[in-house]
Amino acid sequence: MGKKKGTRRQRKDTKVKKVKAQQDIRPKKLYKLIIPAYIEESSLKTLAQIIEEELQDDGEVCDYGKHFGLFKVLGNCSIDFIARNTNKVIDRIISTLSDHGLPLGSELCHNDKVIKRIGRLHVIKVDLSYELRVSPIANEVFVKRVYSRVLALLGGMQIFSSSVIDITNHSAVLYFYVIDKKLALDAINASIDQFRWFLGVSINTADSNMTIQEYYMNQITRPYRHFVQPIWRKMQQDWKGLKNAGQQELKRVFPETPQGLLDILGIVNGTCNQRFSEFQLKVPIFMFEKHELYLLSAEEMMAHGLEDLEVIKPALEYSVRPKGVRARLSQWNACLIAKSEDGKARLYIDYNPTKEGVVGQVLLYDGQSQRIQVVAALFAKFLAVLLTLDYHAYGLYALQALIALLESHDNKGLDLESDMVTAIQKGLYRLQAEVSRKMQEVEDERKKLDILPVDNGFYEWSDLIERIQEKWKLKHM
């Protein structure tokens, strides 16, 4: 029997080198992401960048582009990439794309075989026909105004959108790929109501069963779930949800508790005054106007009575109190659902507003200014507002928390030589890149909305038609 060459360490290093060499020569396979939607060039490029980030050294994006059917009818978009056929890489890409939000029907394929259906966004198709025959220019102006108004009202509920306008056949088709179907349909109907005298409207939807609260919770936990999985696994041990019996008890005390809030409590029953994992991480659920608000548990919500409302009494007595909010505490029926660590900023759901208000409206009390304001008519709309205004805030918060964790010398549970530190450092690098990209996306979206013509009041359409017709006649007659 021959003697083994080298020490155990040398033999291990040799084995590792052989494995790496085999990985390098292992053939890469072609994958295709197919998205049944028209996506703007900038958004498609962002998706390609996301896939490249997930591939790292295990592959690359080959090509991406848009494809149309006959007569320039909406076809699909696709991204081709090559990757080593490792489950780890493909699972990582699937997880990221699922969180990012893709239209229903999106698929990841390999050799024309579907690996995973990853589309979760609802698809809403709006067919418009011109009831009033005016100039083609006027037709296009009206449709583009409808389209821009819908985009402005959808806000954080829509991810992608597209339009196909056929002037010759006096018709147009608008596509919206949205997070929450009900809220989106409300926004679309509100946008086209004033145009119904001019446009015939038909709306069809493809329902993915996703809710805005599901998408919202995915976004705020994503920095931990995706970038530092070892920490997330430790956090999940303390991530307890409210059982059905507890939800029914909360509904008994506050019968009009929105389902969206119950769903969030079902995921985590409060984060106020709680620290997760041995690293003692805090998790604010709502971040709004520079406030970090922590979700109360159902038991804490039911325990807060009228005596706790004394905190906001100065705001109710203020001369500029919102019209939809009652001034007398004895008439209040509001549930405190979240507050800041110092208790000065508070979030309520108001179940007994004045006639000017809406049952279930969300109120924010700012202890510094001692003002109270209505931030959304419904809880679901409040989540949409947070997704619109602070889409990147949770990534930034997680980034700061993880940096503080690495810099802490008092945390004895963190060995600076451990694999955990390496995982955090790698996660920080990729998380920082994603936060920067999201911040740029928000800025680009705001710039785009700033130039969209949104009509918020009454407009004399007959004057507009006459002016456009005159221009059209001068040009063509």
Describe the fold and architecture.
The chain is built from 15 helices and 15 strands. It is an alpha+beta fold and 477 residues long. The longest helix is centred in the C-terminal third of the chain and has 32 residues, at 419-450. It has a 6-stranded antiparallel sheet with strand order 10-11-12-13-14-15.
What is this structure, in a nutshell?
This protein is of the alpha+beta class and 477 residues long. It is built from 15 helices and 15 strands.
Helices and strands in order:
Layout: H1 8-25, E1 28-35, H2 41-55, E2 59-68, E3 74-84, H3 87-100, E4 107-110, E5 113-117, E6 122-130, H4 136-154, E7 158-166, E8 171-178, H5 181-192, E9 199-206, H6 212-227, H7 229-236, H8 244-253, H9 259-267, E10 286-288, E11 291-295, H10 298-303, H11 313-317, E12 334-339, E13 345-350, E14 361-366, E15 371-376, H12 379-389, H13 393-407, H14 419-450, H15 461-476
Antiparallel strand pairs: 1-3, 1-4, 2-3, 4-5, 6-8, 6-9, 7-8, 10-11, 11-12, 12-13, 13-14, 14-15
Helix content: 40-55%
Largest β sheet strand count, sense and barrel closure: 6 strands, antiparallel
Strand content: 15-25%
**Helical/strand content category:** alpha+beta
Number of helices: 15
Mean pLDDT reading: 79
Strand ordering within the main sheet = 10-11-12-13-14-15
Which ranges are low-confidence, i.e. pLDDT below 50, for 5 or more consecutive residues?
Answer: 15-26, 451-461
Key features?
43% helix; 22% strand
